[in-house]
Amino acid sequence: MRFQRIIQIPLFIVFVLLILLASHPVPEYLEVDVFLRLDPLISLGSMAATRAFIPKAALALLVLLCALLLGRIFCGYICPMGATIDFADKLLLRKKPEENSPERDGAYRHFKYLFLAGLAGSAVLGISWVFFFSPLSLATRFFSLVVQPVIMLFGNFLLDAARPLLIHVGLDHLAMVHWAMPRYNTNMFVAFFVFGILSFGLIRPRFWCRNLCPAGAIVALFSMRPFFRRTVSDQCSRCGRCARECPMGAISESFTLTSYSECVACLRCREICPEKAISFKWSGNPDSAKAAVNLSRRKILKAGAVGMAGAAVTMTGLKHLHGGEEPRPLKSSNLIRPPGALPEVEFQARCVRCGECSKACPTNTLQPVWLVAGISGLFSPCVTPRIGGCEQECNLCGRVCPTGAIRPIDIQEKIFAKIGTARIIKSRCIAWEQDRKCLICDEICPYNAITSRLAADHPVTVPVIDEKRCNGCGYCENKCPVEGESAIVVESAGEIRLSKGSYRKEAERLGLIFHSEAGQEDHVFEDPQKTLPPGFEESR
Length: 540
What we know:
Layout: H1 3-21, H2 40-50, H3 60-70, H4 73-78, H5 80-92, H6 111-124, H7 135-168, H8 172-175, H9 187-199, H10 207-212, H11 214-221, E1 228-232, H12 241-245, H13 268-272, E2 278-282, H14 297-315, H15 344-350, H16 356-360, E3 366-368, E4 381-383, H17 396-400, H18 411-414, E5 421-424, H19 430-434, H20 440-444, E6 450-453, E7 462-465, H21 475-479, E8 488-491, H22 503-509
Antiparallel strand pairs: 1-2, 3-4, 5-8, 6-7
Helix pairs in contact: 2-3, 2-6, 5-7, 6-11, 6-14, 7-9
């Protein structure tokens, strides 16, 4: 097996395992988001958009240091998107290109630098688009939201087919196995987007890495003159096999010069050289470097200006009115962010839409959104109570977020991180509208915010919400038995979004109460003169 594969395959397996392990409960010592924090585009892009240093994302600076010493080994060995592309290129069975040198195959190589300049231009105005181009964000989103649910779906099909046989042979415990398959919004778009990237392999191997990936552009800028580099001895017979086989097209037509900003140090050329004339070693001849892409300052400035213009258009869009901006009524009432989410402007700038929080959510309530938060909020996570409530004993979304867009708060503090307030749609409620007894929302509320009360002109108790006790967890909406839209819905009104500081103190300042005495229920009567039906007694 090639040396590159010996390193690349185990690291890819670790990446997949960390995605699988990003489920409740996750051990405190396990950093399941470590690969995301290695992406320099995520790190630098998020810091630029928020104009703040993000310690959790600073791990990517080590990747850039390694690029100075070893070249683009991140792209060749560590990046799971690169490993996925390598595997897809093998499946495509494309014929090896005859012209694969920087001179003949460089028409699109400058695009990645232009994309990087455009992203930098948008970040100047505080708009982050890195989630469209970050290889780690794309790979995490693809394997979390697309691949794993599909595998679980087919796994359940196989288990269902094999269940009679398993029972027949006495494996009853195995016959009872059934995976709770999560479902995600935007998964079809993610699938087609990534498959589109992989299909570029029909044109050239690693087409995305060569020409389009802005994260690769950042690493390439630090890899112009690595200390560990390819060198060619006088034994070279100029057979050209190395240039034809190079997956990045980094070897020049002379076969001795190398574009180090494109070389991923895969060692393929050394392994196939019939004369053993190629070696990778420290230092080397400084004249052995092929000139990088010839990109004018004017093109860079134009790309940056396009990025700024795109950000400006986004910021003047109607649905971009969020956070503390006016007019507040234009903000969607069902845009409920996870507990610990930063204020909206900062949240959108930091969130890289990797899908890690959605994958980790045990109730499947965190879903990527389309345009409910404007185009700048595309694919960002939103609590969807009708799918599931926000679990009290879970704080994984903050722990797995690689940029701190969701603050990593402990369980005791999370209780006070109010994400919204429930309200009852009386025209749909079984008790309010149909005078039929229903206590589900009262019984399911973990914060004792809903009580069953007798109201005038109603023969049965009806649910009433104490907004100061409601955390917005959404279990009432999730469990409401009404078909279709729930009769009790959670809206973002009253949410607490803090960049720093204590949620507990903020909740106390607002007079909120997020606890209840075990076994105590409140029954309050709106009409004290009303005669109680038989069997009802007022609780004191």
